[in-house]
Amino acid sequence: MTIIQFLAAPAVLAILLVGIHAYLGLHVLTRDVIFVDIGLSQVAALGAAISMFYEAEGEGSLAIACSLGLCLVVAFALALLRRYEKKLSQEVLIGMTYALASGLLILVADKLPHGTEHLKHALIGNILFVSWPQVFQTFVIYSIIGVLHFIFRKPFWASSHGESDSFLWDFLFYVLFGVVITFSTHHAGVLVVFAILVAPAALATRFFTKLSTRLAAAWIIGVIGTLAAFVICYVWDLPAGAAIVAVLTGGFFIALIPALLIEGRKAV
């Protein structure tokens, strides 16, 4: 009972994270902008750090507002510049965004009383100590975004596949993505969000072709991986965020490498 009581809220939040990020991860892989998540996450972390000049803990509504505001500005820029993708790769823009946000985050953290702790929190979060009200808030936000994605799934997928160059749908996709990243990073940190977004979706994409099968596989991989990480961190007293990153990314290579070796032998 002790482990269930201790991990109940974090586990439910992790399942919510997997639920929305596994789906968005398939979009990100289709768009070939794999690092957009880590770029926007770093922007969100920068916003939270800036808020700490006015709100000591960086955990309240001001932190969310600053993070979300910066993410929406970057979302608008990415959607606007996608139409110039042939002249300048979006991955370059995303990489430069990440580097700029990282540099500014370090400069801001250097002026904060507990800047080092904030940098650690920005990377791996503090998911073990989320409260049930935070879980409920996340559930409501993710549910709204999930419903919008379901209702407008055709134009969103057309945009991701490059079948439409509509600025509106690109912008809406990045706006909704930015909202998800803001709340995810707030609770879980940059690296955890990136691992949950990419690892399950990448494995599912590698082994399956049908979209519904990929989504189901990504959900299963993500849920099993995150729950296993929670058990590991509880038994060996390890940081939960780092454990989630290690399990998901390690599992990615454990599953991928044997498959590639078997395919290589068959080809020979």
Key traits:
268 residues, mainly alpha, ABC transporter involved in vitamin B12 uptake, BtuC, 11 helices, globular
Briefly say what this structure is.
This protein is mainly α. It has one domain: ABC transporter involved in vitamin B12 uptake, BtuC (Orthogonal Bundle), CATH 1.10.3470.10.
Structure description:
This protein is mainly α. The protein has a single domain (2-267), classed as ABC transporter involved in vitamin B12 uptake, BtuC, CATH 1.10.3470. It is 82% helix and 0% strand. The protein has 11 helices and no strands. It has helices at 2-31, 36-51, 61-81, 90-110, 115-124, 132-151, 153-160, 167-188, 190-207, 211-236, 240-267. The chain starts with a helix and ends with a helix.
Secondary structure category:
mainly alpha
CATH C-level label: Mainly Alpha
Strand elements, count: 0
Strand content: under 5%
Using the CA coordinates, give the radius of gyration.
18 Å
**Shape by Cα distribution:** globular
- Enumerate how many helices there are, as a single number: 11
Reported for the largest beta sheet, the result is: none
According to CATH, what is the topology? ABC transporter involved in vitamin B12 uptake, BtuC
The CATH architecture: Orthogonal Bundle
Order of helices and strands: HHHHHHHHHHH
Oligomer: single chain
Low-confidence stretches: none
- CATH homology superfamily: ABC transporter involved in vitamin B12 uptake, BtuC
